[in-house]
């Protein structure tokens, strides 16, 4: 064969040796990866390979892992926010961090967050009643826009005429003619956090921290429909069963019912 191809015999043995060496490295990388319970990344695999007498670069290990479909448990997709100009409205912070409200639906707060759905970012918007920390409205969608907010507002089942104040941060998603018209229709006063001050919307921020920890973390959603269905079930549990320290370790619904009994 070497004579026909007019190449030295030494080249054949060299290529065969290199191929065997490459196959050995691939096999070792796979072995180390699964022995680590699929936790090791390129850095730790490189250390383990060195213990076996193999000096392999992290780039090469990464290439092998990619070819073999090996993904470390610590390889988590990071959300990359797109920097946009904030809402420069002159609207003041009418809520002024008055997070304790004595009447149901007097003031509601809202915010948005992102959730990984089938390798893509989708978004969740919730409305929270400051009276009992109940999630009174929510929506999910593929885009972080005003329509997501509007659908969350439309999902609120109580009379919107009861709402006196609607507070959010200065995200542009909350500034839209569709939303402005809806608020005007129900005579709902607008309130905006100070620019760059998340503490002004602390209840909404805290609610999303709970959602991210209890509902999103460690979960995989295959579709937007699945996310919506599972979120609806979680919101029911959050409102009806989950106890809240700020409510004297009562659920939002239980807290509201006890309040109504006192009034009667």
From TrEMBL:
Identification of the protein by name: Transposase InsO family protein
* Residue ranges occupied by any Integrase catalytic domain in the UniProt entry: 100-260
Cross-referenced PANTHER family: TRANSPOSASE INSF FOR INSERTION SEQUENCE IS3B-RELATED (PTHR46889), TRANSPOSASE INSO FOR INSERTION SEQUENCE ELEMENT IS911B-RELATED (PTHR46889:SF4)
Listed InterPro entries: HTH-like_dom (IPR025948), Integrase_cat-core (IPR001584), RNaseH-like_sf (IPR012337), RNaseH_sf (IPR036397), Transpos_IS3 (IPR048020), Transposase_IS3/IS150/IS904 (IPR050900)
What does the protein in this record do? Involved in the transposition of the insertion sequence.
